[in-house]
Design goal:
The complex is a heterodimer. Chain A is built from nine helices and no strands. Chain A is mainly alpha-helical. Chain A has two domains: 144 residues, no CATH class; 161 residues, no CATH class. In chain A, helix 4 packs across helix 6. Chain A is flat and about 70 Å long. By secondary structure, chain B is an alpha+beta fold. Chain B has 13 helices and 24 strands. In chain B, strand 13 and strand 14 form a beta hairpin. Chain B is elongated. The chains are: A mainly alpha, B alpha+beta. Chains A and B meet through helix 7 and helix 8 of A and helix 1, helix 3, helix 5, strand 8 and strand 11 of B. The structure holds protoporphyrin IX containing FE (HEM). Protoporphyrin IX containing FE sits at the interface of chains B and A.
C-alpha cells in the first residue's frame, strides 16, 4: 500500500478548478459557435433562395455540406442508401426521405467529416483540449496522492468520469465532426466537476478493504468508459428526435422554426453513428456486468445476488439489448430506437446518482 | 426473427435496395402464402392456433417487448427490501407500513426475482429465444452450404456499384477477367462461384461474413447456457454463515453453521468435513490521512485448514476479496468485530459462564451491542445486555460513544437481570437479543445500583448476592460466508462465449459481391461490380473502394481515373455518380 500524499491531493484539487474554468470558457465558445453558424447559415439560405428563383434547378448552393442542393423534394429512396447501408426497411422510413430535405446544408454533413472552417468551433475545441490536459493532470496527481487508481469514491468517480467523457469526445472528434455536441458534452463535464467539488468532496485516502482488488481497476474503468460513450449517444439520440421532428415538419411544408438544428446532421446519420457507438458501449457494458459478477464472487461468494446496484446494471444492459433489437425490428428503428437509447442513458444516470446515494446495498461503501 | 428467416429465402433481386416496391412484393407474397394456407385450412383449428401463437411468440417484436418488460420488472426489486437478501428487514418493513405492506407481499414484491410474474417473463423470453435460435440455425446452416445467390440482372441497383474498363491491348478477355476477380475475392475470404453459362457475359457471385450469424447464434445460445448454469447452482449449491472467534474451529457439517441455506436438491452427504481454525485476526486502520483517519484499510485472518479430519494442517491467509477454497467450497471473509471475554460467577460462587461473547456491530468505530445469557447460573439465571466500546468516550450529556476502532480504551457497559431466561422452553432465541420482559432488573442507569461499567481486568459484584462478572480481555472474531456453487464455472464459460459471439456478430460484416464481365464491340473488356450488405454495415463503401483498387491494380488500371469507366455503356437508371470519401 502506497503512502498518502496530501500535498499531491491539494495540487489535484487546484488542477480540477483550473480545468473546470477552462472548460467553462470552452463551453461559451461552443455556444457562440452554435449561435454564429446558425446566423451565417440563415444568410446563405436567403442568398440561395434568391439564386434559386432565377437559376435552374441544378444550381448549387454554396455550402460546404454534402447535402445536395435543390433537394427540397425527396430523393428516390433507391439512391438514398449510398453510404447509409442498413437493414432493408431503413430507407422506407420517413426520416430518411426527409434526410435530404434539409434545403440548406448543415455545418456537419451527414458523413460527419470536417467541412468548412469555423473559427469559434476551433477555439472551443482547442480550449477543450487544454481543459482536458489540465484535467488529466488533476486526475493523475489525485492518483499519485492516493497511491492507487483514482476511482474509489463518488468524488473520484465524478472527476475521473468527467475526464473520460471529455477524452472520449475529443478522440471521436479526430475521426468525426461532432463539434455540434460540444455544448452538451463540455457542459456536462463542467456540471460533473462542480458537483464533485461541491457535494462529494473527499480528501485523498486509502481504499476500504472491500474495494482493494484488481477487479476495481478493471470493472470500474470499463464501466466509466462505457458510460462516457453512452453519454455521447444520449446526446445524439436526443438531437435525432428533434431533427426528425424538424425534418418531418419541413417535408410537410411547415416552417423551419429550429434554425440552429441546421448545424446538426440528418436524423438518419445521427441514428447510424449513435448505433455504432452504442454497439461498442454495449460490449463494454456487457464486460462491466460480467467483471462485476466475477468480482462479487470473489468478494461476497456469489456472482449474482440482485443487490440494488446489480439490479440497475442489469436493467441498463437489458434496455440497451432492447435498443439493439429495436434496430433490427421493423417499425422500431428510428424514433423509437432513439427513445430506448435515451431511456438507457437515464438508467445509467439514475444508477450512478440515486442508487449510489439513497439505496442501501452491498455497494453502499462506494463512499460519500 | 421470422422476418429474418424469410429474408434468407429471398432471391438476390429482392435483396437489392428497392425498399418500397420490394417490401410490398414480399408483403403480397406473404399474403398469397397466407391465403393459400387459408384455403387448405378453412378455420384455424387447434394446430393453427398453436402455430399462430408460436409465430407471435418467436417474432422479433415479441422478443423486444419481453426484453423491455424484463427490464421494467426487475426494477421493483431495488425499490423494496428483498427476502432472500434480508428477511428481517422485510418483516420490519411490513410492520412499518401496515397500510400496504401486506398487499405488496401478496403480489410477491419482496421476492421479485423468484416471483411468478418475473419468472413468467424470463421463461417466455427464453422460449422465444429457443424458437428464434433453432430455425435460424437451420436456415443459416443451409445458407452456408448453398452457393452465393445468382447474379442480379442490374448490378447498378446495388448500394455500391462501379465499373472498370480494361483496354483491348491488355489481352485480358472477359473470361480471364472474371477468373482474376474470383481469385482476388477468394483471397479476401469470400466464397466465390463463377458462372460461365451466361456465354459472352460471365459473372460471379461471392459472399463472406457467415461468422456474423454464427456469432449471433452463439451469443443467444450462450444466454440459455448462463441461465441453465444459474439454475444448476440453485439446485445443487448451498451456502452458509459462521462466526469464528480467534481460536475457534469450524467443521463443515450441518451443525457447524450458524445459518445454512441449502439448494433445492441439496444432500447433507455433499458436505466434505474439512475444518478451518481462526488463529489470529488483524485489522489495520488508516493513521495517515486526516480525512479518513480510522477508516479500515486492511483485514487479514490467519487460518489453519484441514481438507478432512485426518489430513495435515495447512496455514493459509483469508482476506477480503481473497477467499480460501476448500472441499469444493469457497470461504469468504465478510465481517469482523470484537468479542469481549468475560467470566460470570453465580450466587453460589461457581463459574457459570466463561469465554468470549460476540459483540454485534451497531455504529461507528465498532460501537457494538453485547448480550450475555447465563442459563447455568444458580439459584437464578442471569442475563446481561449493553454495549462494548473499543475506545470509550463519554459526552457531557453522559452519552458514550466509541472514538476509535482500535482497542485504546476498551469498555463494557452493561445492565443486568435475573430470572428465567426462557431458554428451556425450546423455542429458538436470537443470541443477540435479550427479552427482559420476564426478568428482574439488577443494574441499569435507572436502577439504584446504577449500570455496570468495566475495563479489562475489572470485576463487578452484582447486587443482592447474585454473583459477579469479570471483564477478562478482548478477542476478535470474523464472520465467514461459505458457498458451494456447482454452476459457477459453466456460467463463466457461457458468459465468455456470449461476449465472443456478441463481438463477432457486431463486427463481422456479411456482404455479397457480384462481378460481371463482357467484351465491348471495340475489344475493351468491361467489368462491372456491385456490393450488398446484409444487416448493418457502415464499411461497405470502403470495401467497394478496396475491391476497386485491387482489381485496378491487377489489371494495371488507374482506379481513380473516371476514364476507366465506360461512358456509353452506363446502364439506364444508374445511380448518380458517387461522391468518394
Ligand atoms: C434473453 C434475451 C435476449 C437478449 C439479452 C438479446 C440480446 C441481443 C443483442 C445484444 C443483440 C445484438 C448483437 C447481435 O447481433 O448479436 C441481439 C441481436 C439479435 N437478437 Fe437477441 N436477445 C435476446 C433474445 C432474443 C430473442 C427472443 C430473439 C428472437 C425473437 C432474438 C433475436 C435476435 C436477432 C434476430 C438479432 C440480430 C439483429 C441484427 O441482425 O441486428 N433475440 N440480441
Amino acid at each position: 500500500m502506497f503512502p498518502i500524499n496530501e500535498t499531491m491531493g491539494q495540487y489535484s484539487e487546484l488542477f480540477m478548478l483550473l480545468a473546470a474554468g477552462t472548460y467553462t470558457v470552452a463551453f461559451i465558445a461552443f455556444a457562440w459557435d452554435l449561435a454564429r453558424s446558425s446566423k451565417s447559415l440563415k444568410a446563405i439560405d436567403l442568398k440561395a433562395a434568391a439564386a434559386g428563383a432565377s437559376a435552374d434547378t441544378s444550381a448549387k448552393v454554396p455550402v460546404a455540406a454534402g447535402a445536395s442542393a435543390g433537394a427540397a423534394t425527396p430523393r428516390p429512396a433507391g439512391s438514398g442508401g449510398g453510404r447509409l447501408s442498413g437493414p432493408a426497411d431503413r430507407a422506407e422510413r420517413p426520416s430518411s426521405y426527409a434526410s435530404s430535405a434539409n434545403g440548406a446544408g448543415q455545418t456537419a454533413d451527414d458523413s460527419m467529416r470536417y467541412g468548412e472552417r469555423r473559427a469559434p468551433a476551433r477555439v472551443a475545441v482547442a480550449l477543450t483540449v487544454l481543459g482536458a490536459a489540465i484535467h488529466a493532470a488533476a486526475v493523475l496527481t489525485r492518483a499519485v496522492g492516493a497511491g492507487r487508481v483514482p476511482w474509489g469514491n463518488m468524488y473520484e468517480f465524478l472527476t475521473t468520469g468527467a475526464f473520460v467523457a471529455a477524452a472520449v469526445f475529443l478522440v471521436v472528434l479526430i475521426r468525426r465532426d461532432l463539434r455540434f455536441l460540444g455544448t452538451f458534452v463540455v457542459g456536462l463535464v463542467v456540471i460533473m466537476l462542480v458537483a464533485a467539488s461541491v457535494a462529494f468532496w473527499t480528501p485523498v485516502g486509502h481504499l476500504v478493504p472491500a474495494l482493494q482488488s484488481y477487479w476495481l481497476i478493471i470493472h470500474v474503468s470499463i464501466a466509466v468508459l462505457s458510460s462516457a460513450l453512452f453519454t455521447l449517444t444520449f446526446a445524439m439520440s436526443a438531437l435525432q428526435l428533434v431533427q426528425s421532428h424538424r425534418q418531418r415538419t419541413i417535408a410537410a411544408g411547415g416552417a423551419d422554426k429550429l434554425g440552429f438544428m441546421r448545424l446538426v446532421p440528418s436524423a438518419l446519420s445521427l441514428e447510424n453513428l449513435s448505433y455504432r457507438i452504442n454497439a461498442i458501449a454495449f460490449i463494454g457494458w456487457t464486460f462491466t456486468l460480467m467483471f462485476g459478477a466475477i468480482w462479487a464472487e470473489k468478494a461476497w461468494g456469489r456472482f449474482w445476488g440482485w443487490d440494488t446496484k446489480e439490479v440497475w446494471t442489469f436493467v441498463i444492459w437489458v434496455v440497451y439489448a432492447g435498443y439493439l433489437h429495436a434496430r433490427a425490428t421493423r417499425g422500431w428503428t428510428g424514433t423509437r430506437a432513439a427513445w430506448l437509447s435515451i431511456v438507457g442513458y437515464l438508467c445509467v444516470v439514475f444508477n450512478f446518482t440515486i442508487v449510489n446515494q439513497f439505496f442501501n446495498g452491498l455497494h453502499s461503501y462506494s463512499g460519500l | 426473427m421470422s422476418e429474418r428467416v424469410k429474408s434468407t429465402e429471398k432471391s438476390p433481386a429482392e435483396d437489392a435496395p428497392q425498399p418500397g416496391p420490394v417490401q410490398k412484393d414480399a408483403a403480397t407474397k406473404d399474403a398469397v402464402k397466407a391465403a393459400k394456407a387459408g384455403a387448405a385450412l378453412p378455420s384455424l383449428g387447434v394446430v393453427g392456433m398453436f402455430r399462430w401463437a408460436w409465430t407471435q411468440l418467436t417474432s422479433m417484436r415479441t422478443a423486444l417487448f419481453l426484453l423491455l418488460l424484463l427490464a421494467v420488472a426487475a426494477v421493483p426489486g431495488s425499490l423494496f427490501p428483498q427476502r432472500p437478501a434480508n428477511p428481517s428487514v422485510v418483516t420490519q418493513y411490513i410492520k412499518d407500513h401496515p397500510d400496504y405492506g401486506k398487499l405488496l407481499d401478496s403480489v410477491q414484491l419482496y421476492d421479485v426475482y423468484s416471483s411468478a410474474w418475473f419468472s413468467a417473463i424470463y421463461i417466455l423470453l427464453f422460449i422465444s429465444l429457443i424458437g428464434c435460435v433453432v430455425p435460424r440455425a437451420i436456415a443459416h446452416y443451409k445458407a452456408m452450404r448453398s452457393q452465393p445467390p445468382r447474379t442480379p440482372k442490374r448490378l447498378s441497383r446495388l448500394p455500391e456499384y462501379g465499373t472498370l474498363v480494361v483496354p483491348a491491348d491488355a489481352g485480358i478477355p472477359a473470361s480471364d477477367a472474371i477468373e482474376d476477380a474470383a481469385a482476388l475475392l477468394k483471397k479476401r475470404g469470400y466464397r466465390v462461384d463463377v458462372r460461365h453459362d451466361d456465354g459472352a457475359r460471365p459473372s460471379l457471385g461471392a459472399e463472406r461474413g457467415f461468422l456474423r450469424e454464427v456469432g449471433n447464434l452463439v451469443f443467444h445460445t450462450s444466454l440459455i447456457g448462463v441461465l441453465v448454469s444459474v439454475a444448476v447452482g440453485g439446485l445443487f449449491g448451498y451456502s452458509g454463515q459462521r462466526i469464528l472467534v480467534e481460536g475457534d474451529t469450524f467443521v463443515n457439517t450441518l451443525v457447524g453453521y450458524d445459518q445454512f441455506t441449502p439448494g433445492t436438491n441439496f444432500q447433507s452427504g455433499q458436505l466434505q468435513p474439512y475444518s478451518i481454525q481462526l488463529d489470529k485476526f488483524q485489522a489495520t486502520f488508516d493513521r495517515e490521512s486526516q480525512g479518513k483517519f480510522g477508516q479500515p484499510i486492511d483485514f487479514t485472518a490467519d487460518v489453519t485448514t484441514k481438507e478432512n479430519p485426518g489430513a495435515p494442517a495447512k496455514k493459509e491467509v483469508l482476506k477480503v476479496n481473497d477467499p480460501v477454497t476448500l472441499g469444493g467450497t469457497s470461504i469468504y471473509l465478510t465481517g469482523n468485530g470484537y468479542a469481549p471475554v468475560v467470566t460470570v460467577r453465580d450466587g453460589k460462587g461457581n463459574v457459570a459462564m466463561q469465554g468470549p461473547v460476540v459483540a454485534k456491530l451497531q455504529g461507528e468505530n465498532y460501537y457494538s451491542s453485547v448480550v450475555i445469557k447465563v442459563p447455568d447460573a444458580k439459584p437464578d439465571q442471569l442475563g446481561f445486555a449493553g454495549f462494548f466500546l473499543p475506545t470509550a468516550f463519554v459526552t457531557e450529556q453522559g452519552i458514550s460513544f466509541s472514538g476509535d476502532p482500535d482497542l485504546i480504551n476498551p469498555q463494557l457497559s452493561l445492565n443486568s437481570y435475573y430470572g428465567d431466561l426462557g431458554l428451556d422452553k425450546g423455542a429458538p432465541q436470537n443470541v443477540f437479543e435479550l427479552d427482559v420482559k420476564g426478568l428482574k432488573e439488577l443494574n441499569s442507569r435507572k436502577a439504584e445500583a446504577g449500570g455496570i461499567t468495566l475495563a479489562p481486568g475489572n470485576t463487578y459484584t452484582l447486587p443482592e448476592g447474585k454473583g459477579s462478572i469479570t471483564f477478562d480481555g478482548v478477542k476478535k472474531y470474523v464472520g465467514v460466508d461459505i458457498h458451494h456453487n456447482p454452476g459457477q464455472l459453466s456460467a463463466l464459460i457461457f458468459a465468455l462465449l456470449a461476449v465472443a459471439g456478441l463481438i463477432v456478430s457486431l463486427y463481422v460484416n456479411r456482404r455479397r459481391v457480384w462481378v460481371r464481365t463482357g467484351t465491348h464491340e471495340d475489344g475493351r473488356t468491361m467489368v462491372e461490380y456491385g456490393l450488398l450488405a446484409r444487416g448493418e454495415d457502415h464499411r461497405l463503401a470502403g470495401e467497394a473502394a478496396t475491391l476497386r483498387s485491387l482489381l485496378a491494380g491487377k489489371w494495371n488500371l488507374d482506379a481513380d481515373n473516371p476514364e476507366t469507366a465506360p461512358s456509353n455503356s452506363s446502364p439506364a437508371g444508374s445511380p448518380e455518380p458517387k461522391k468518394d470519401q
